[in-house]
Automatic annotation (TrEMBL), chain A:
MacB-like periplasmic core domain ranges (all copies): 21-236
Similarity comment: Belongs to the ABC-4 integral membrane protein family.
Transmembrane segments: 21-41, 264-295, 316-345, 357-377
Organism: Microtetraspora glauca
Membrane topology: Multi-pass membrane protein
Official protein name in the record: ABC transporter permease
Pfam families (UniProt xref): FtsX, MacB_PCD
Subcellular compartments: Cell membrane
Domain ABC3 transporter permease C-terminal residue range list: 274-387
Keyword Membrane found: yes
InterPro entries: ABC3_permease_C (IPR003838), MacB_PCD (IPR025857), Macrolide_Exporter_MacB (IPR050250)
Keywords, comma-separated and alphabetical: Cell membrane, Membrane, Transmembrane, Transmembrane helix
Amino acid sequence: MRTAEALRMAVEALRVNRLRSGLTMFGVIIGVLSVVILVAIGTGAKDAVEREIAGLGSNIILVVPGQVTLGAAPTQSRLDLSDVAYVRRVVGDPSRVTVAVNSGEPVRVGRNEVFATLTGTDENVPGVFDRPLRRGRYLSETDVDTRRRVAVLGSEVAAKLFGDVDPIGRQVTVAGVRFRVVGLYETVGATFGVARDQEVHIPVTTAQRLIGMNRINAVAVSASGPDEIEPLRRRVLAALAERYPGERFSAVTQTQLLGTVGTVLGMLTGVLAAIAAISLLVGGVGVSNIMLVGVRERTKEIGLRKALGARGRDVLVQFLIEAVLLTTIGGLAGIVLGVGGALLIQAVSPVPAAITWWSIVLAFGVSAGVGVFFGVAPARRAARLDPVVALRTE
Amino acid sequence: MTPPPPLPEDTAADAGEDAAGNVPGNAPGNAAESAFEAIGLTRSYRLDGVSVDALRGVSLRIGRGEFVAIVGPSGSGKSTLMHLLGCLDRPTNGVLRVGGVDVSTLDDIRLAELRNQTIGFVFQSFHLLARTPALDNVALPLVYRGVARAERRARARAALEAVGLGHRLDHRPSQMSGGEQQRVAIARALVGDPQVVLADEPTGNLDTRNGADVMALLERLNADNGVAVVLVTHEPEVAGRARRQIHVRDGRIELDTGVVAGGGRAGGSGEDG
Ligand SMILES: Nc1ncnc2c1ncn2[C@@H]1O[C@H](COP(=O)(O)OP(=O)(O)O)[C@@H](O)[C@H]1O
Ligand SMILES: [Mg+2]
């Protein structure tokens, strides 16, 4: 018997039992649909986070004291402003190095008060971070040198405190001290839960006085190009190790962050896909079950076919093709619905979703494989039926 | 009902041995000319450790173009014998030659081919695919022979016309009377130009008139095409239309009118006691 003939027979058998075929496919459809949608969401989340990290500014190296481990309490800093000057000399280009002193503080205008991230920094923010201004100016070298009480506001802080009013030149009170607003940042969004639009930047010298410490939290360095990141990272670390023998410093690059985050989110996507694959497996068991029922029901038909000259192999192929057809048609329907669902989620909800080719190919391949795997047992049972017993069955 | 057109000419030239002209009703003289030759056939079933002997040593020879009725009470082993002759089953003991070939030398695949090429089946309960049109039902044996679709349909159409159902090609069995269904089954049995048609109680589910129509068809098939017909029945008037009757009882041949008439034509008689 030719394969085309077997295919025609299988289509006919599925058509004759339309309702049952549809219900059987349903399990596979749900499975494939969830694979496609969950992988799309996982991939979308990964893309979104990677975009955020890239949005920090290009080629950034963040130098912090101690060892960076997730969940560990931050190490007591031993870096101060002289170390920042030292790093500047090591890097060579002072505009590529900036500093951060952080503290959560209330910021008030009249009766409006918000809780903001107060960041003491310097005039090199635009040289390191991708942080465009909407209005006014950045902090200047003079602001830092003379410990001025001036501030550049993140867009959300400004919106909450001033509404639509232009904040430039107005006063804000930070931790009880009055500052004059000289600049307003563009909205840049959040990174890792760090709401950068809720920051208030003031000169680092002013911040140290205000918070009452002479240390700093981090030094941020920008490499001149992607190839320069790693050498520069090593150079800065080596220089700090030389200056403070026995101390530990960490220099985290964007690439490392991307890698770590990518791995974590990749694993998440994998877990989601695995959960979805289980539902696909359940769909496969359903196919197997229905096929077994079909073989029992069609015992007479199988016996007849054998009497008319069907070989065991012909019967096997016929039932196997039926199973594979069930799962691949279900798989295609699941892919169409899954892609549609992912696009819908993307359009109407804040959850990002990105459709990937591999998930579609995988889902289709797996559903075909499920058909073969779960079709074999019923098909073999059919192929082995004794024609006499089958024909005597009434 | 209009009289059905004549049966198509037997075009079976694919198997050389087939070319030997058979005169219907004339018993062939040697073993190679036999459609079936059985020597000491037994068939036992094992049910929960208990052995049931359905056939207890059957020997017979059925020539090409013969018309034979197998008769006997229910449970005597008629169907079991038919299944053995039709190569649907293998004997527990004994030798069976179909068209001169010892079936014990054939594997399951060759056996399926043998069924497909040389034997046509007609069953008491028709055994048609209920939701498949008559034309495709009839063409089914040719599917397993690898015949191309267009030719299959043409031959199935001719076979249906030969049994007087040229106007029912696209009807499904569920839309047909029992008599029509059995004629579809006969068309399916003859579409592959078999050497033998095995019919197990073909009139068992039919009223007298439809039964007579089916018998007439089988007789014409035998007379015009030289196809051997082996028919199981428990109706005396049906059996009486066959030239030869083989009476089976308790798994043995009780009486074989062919043997009595021919004077020891068969390899060995199953008669005893
Ligand atoms: N598959 C089987 N398993 C056990 N016993 C069987 C089987 N098929 C037939 N038999 C037994 O073999 C005997 C002959 O059966 P069968 O050939 O169908 O008789 P008939 O067709 O003459 O009525 C009966 O006793 C029947 O019960
Ligand atoms: Mg019977």
